[in-house]
Write a structure and sequence with these properties.
- The protein has one domain.
- Helix content is 76%, strand content 0%.
- It is built from 14 helices and no strands.
């Protein structure tokens, strides 16, 4: 039973991440700047995590000073960089396109692992990379041409995938010294404080006076950031990380469905085929390093 609950936690975490686009677009209707949106997610999540972890896991507040550069990297690149590129992509492309471009991340991790840790590029990995590339070409609208996407949006989506992948790289080193909740907290401590440079106080006050501003801010922080990180991390206690990464592919599917349900976006046959190819690539990557 405990194992099944762990699977449920992973699914819940991935599904919650899939709602990022909904709350991002709700906030966009208030006229809020991109910087303030990044600030709401990162600093708001930092505040909430500080309160939650103070009660359930106070060990997260203690690290060694020599590891600060690690968290500077994960906070600035993996979270602040991801927020800026992914939020921008979601406004220029459909949520299906943005979500699936983000899931180029496993392919980037494979390439990074080969460069940094000399991990072998097996036939399985090469096949997965080819599938991911073909899938993203289909989702981007190269075939069919009626999907909402733009060249800048696609480039931002690829950038988001790179930022997302960087968190796995930083975690590879961080988890050798700390538990996953500590890794998450200090990443968001850096990201939250760094995001204060984006603060436009008058615009922020105007946004938070609007119902859509409150709904978008609370949803982005609680539903699309803090809860999924806690759910996913909790699930990893009973689910092998490779299996969890496969289950996490629920996220782009949920992102695509939210675009259809909330914003009347369409999914043509090429988009669906592209999603299937990218998810298949992620499954292949998670199955191991066998040739």
């Amino acid at each position: 039973m405990k194992k099944y609950i762990s699977y449920i936690y992973v699914v819940l975490g991935a599904a919650c991440w899939g709602f990022i686009g909904v709350f991002n677009r709700i906030l966009a209707t208030t006229g809020i700047t991109m910087g303030n949106r990044v600030l709401i997610r990162n600093f708001g999540s930092l505040l909430l995590m500080t309160v939650v972890f103070a009660f359930i896991h106070p060990q997260v507040f203690h690290i060694q000073k020599k590891h600060l550069p690690l968290f500077l990297g994960s906070g600035l690149l993996s979270v602040v960089g991801l927020g800026w590129t992914y939020f921008s992509c979601q406004l220029m492309c459909s949520l299906a396109v943005a979500g699936i471009l983000l899931y180029l991340a496993p392919s980037f991790v494979v390439i990074g692992s080969a460069i940094l840790w000399k991990a072998p590029l097996t036939r399985r990995k090469i096949a997965a990379l080819a599938l991911a590339l073909c899938g993203c070409a289909l989702v981007s609208g190269i075939v069919g041409g009626d999907v909402k996407a733009s060249v800048p949006g696609i480039l931002l989506g690829i950038g988001a995938g790179l930022c997302y992948a960087s968190y796995t790289i930083f975690s590879h080193y961080g988890l050798a010294h700390y538990d996953s909740l500590t890794m998450i907290y200090w990443t968001f401590l850096v990201a939250g404080l760094a995001s204060l440079v984006f603060l436009d106080a008058p615009a922020m006050a105007d946004t938070l006076r609007q119902p859509n501003g409150i709904i978008g801010a609370v949803g982005l922080v609680v539903i699309a950031t803090v809860l999924p990180y806690i759910f996913y991390t909790k699930g990893l206690e009973g689910v092998e990380s490779g299996v969890a990464s496969v289950i996490a592919n629920v996220e782009p599917v949920v992102a695509a469905l939210t675009g259809v349900i909330f914003f009347n976006e369409t999914l043509n046959i090429w988009t669906v085929l592209g999603i299937i190819l990218v998810l298949t690539a992620a499954v292949l990557l998670a199955k191991g390093d066998n040739p």
